[in-house]
Design a protein that fits this description.
There is one protein chain. By secondary structure, the chain is α+β, with helices and mostly antiparallel strands. The protein has two domains: 46 residues, no CATH class; 55 residues, no CATH class. Helices cover 47% and strands 12% of the residues. The chain has five helices and two strands. The protein has a two-stranded antiparallel sheet. The N and C termini lie far apart (41 Å). The C terminus is likely disordered.
Length: 111
């Protein structure tokens, strides 16, 4: 499938829907990839296609180095499906707790 056809099809979908691979219960897509010097081929990746610890830590490092605002980065991470639980799974409690505090999630109750 070509990217333009995919875009047309996706425009008809619920913009808040989560994209999965292979079937409705498949792995959630987190990244859209293309080669740096050749964007003629595009592919989708899940958490299992990447070193998620490294991916997540790089985002925290960008915050620490002042390259991006923490809430902006956390919002981007959440939009990709990188939740506090995934942060905790791959980088531990310190980063996950930090993300929760920044987003004000530690006081939220889920019903």
């Amino acid at each position: 499938m070509r990217v333009d056809a995919l875009i047309k099809k996706l425009q008809k979908m619920n913009p808040d829907a989560v994209v999965h691979l292979h079937h409705k219960d498949g792995d959630e897509v987190l990244f859209i990839m293309a080669q740096q010097n050749d964007n003629s081929v595009v592919w989708l990746e899940t958490e299992y296609d990447n070193d998620m610890g490294q991916e997540i830590q790089a985002r925290f490092d960008a915050i620490d180095h002042g390259e991006v605002d923490d809430k902006t980065m956390y919002a981007e991470m959440l939009s990709l499906g990188i939740t506090v639980d995934i942060v905790r799974k791959y980088t531990g409690d310190d980063n996950a707790d930090r993300m929760e505090r920044a987003l004000g999630m530690q006081d939220m109750l889920v019903f």
